[in-house]
User: Fold Integrase catalytic domain-containing protein from Rotaria sordida.
Amino acid sequence: MSQSDSTIVQIDNGELVYYTELEKHINSLSEKFQAKSVIKQSVYDDIVKFLLLSKDKPLSLFSSKFIFWVKKYFIVIKIAGIDIACYIKSKKPICIYESYYNVIREAHTTISHGGRDKTIHELNSHYSWIPRFAVEIFLKQRISCQTRKPIKQHVITKPIISLGVMTSKFTWAYPLKNKSAVDVTLKLRELFFVFGPPRILHSDNGREFVASVIYELKELFPDMIFIRGRPRHPQTQGCIERANGVLCDALGKWMSINNSSHWSDGLLPVVYGINTRLSVVTKTTPYQVMFGQAPRSDSDFWKIAEENRVIDEEDLPTPVTDLNDDNIMNDKNNDFNDCPENIDEDIIQFVQQLSDDAGASSLVDI
Assistant:
């Protein structure tokens, strides 16, 4: 075959296909919503430029509609010494149009490839101004998520009301070479000695759970009740059967996307993603139910540090202050350089006051 007869087929990557479909959808909208449905880099730069413009400067560079729109919806917040435009209601940084693909992909991977609502919840916890249709178009392009959708025939389950640490939907998982009773018992001992034992240890009738070595846990934790499900009747442990299905589905997506056959390598990140994504039942994440706070991940701060190639400790920019703390925000522009100098003393006095309170058993209870 001669060189002239050969044809070169160029395969579009996922990002190119995504933005092509996204542009089609934006163009299908009315002109009223096209301009402000997404914020591109040029518009973002104008927003920051206007918000940082001093009062004595002329406003002739911007139209009156643009000025009204910016004043109504946006403010500037300093993050690591850099001025970032944020949505005025959520105080979250604006995600520009050019970053949609990478940002949505990162959020979707973080929650172990959860569905649309879980992905949107993860995005809204870090960014603003990402429309729903941008997430839906992205998920339609994910082959692994489309081909591994769970079958809509769930096992009938009874709702579990969270009353404490060991009654939440928080998930633990450990890789084991086999299901021997000894290995299972060792992992359960490690778990119970860190978080405390549950009131009820509910299991199926597998050999690893009916062996005598499991009953040694009863001697270590005498207040724990050990209950087995009915033989050949998975509905009695329907909640854990459903949880196993969610874990297997997310782990399968991880293996497919990472082109890996070592499921043990992806077990911990997948479980973390499940624990930090939105639960439809509780309307929050299992992590927040378990620990009473969101994970400490200042993603914007560390992205800026990575872009500036921070290596030494002395090169670190100013630490990021919690964007949701309205008490620390002193003015409308949320200048974090104006934080009170005696904040450490206030925290110490607050902790001492809690320690003196005889009715308070712990900070978590309060």
In short: The longest strand covers residues 74-79. The first helix runs from residue 14 to 28. The radius of gyration is 26 Å. The mean pLDDT is 75.
